[in-house]
Amino acid sequence: MIFFTNSVRDSAFVALLSIVASHVAVQLIKKLSCRKRPYIILPDVHTCQNPLKDYSFPSGHTTATFAIAVVFSIYYPWLMPTLLPLAMLVGISRMYLGLHYPTDCIIGALIGTVSSIVIVLLLS
């Protein structure tokens, strides 16, 4: 952050706050929902080596990518056509790897998006 202009530094700080806020929500929901990952429930799901052992709902990776992508899309709208599809690909990859159900990623994307919008509005 020290190497960038004030506007990039400010948007990066907002993205950091959005990730922190969204992950507080993610961790609370994971503890309350206790949803097992698909590869544990579905016998034919093949996943990567050393898969995650915590609960699956919601997807923390998808939440984080949307929290970052939405903040930078708000501050730099010209990045939106690149950042949002990349964030969606992260969610799709989590499902492809057998680590999340579609609803895990959809809710993760929603949490990341809402936290970003709220943080941007609060700091505007």
TrEMBL record:
Pfam families: PAP2. Coiled coil: none annotated. Residues 11-120 form the Phosphatidic acid phosphatase type 2/haloperoxidase domain. InterPro entries: PAP2/HPO, PAP2/HPO_sf. It is a multi-pass membrane protein. The keyword Transport does not apply. This is Phosphatase PAP2 family protein.
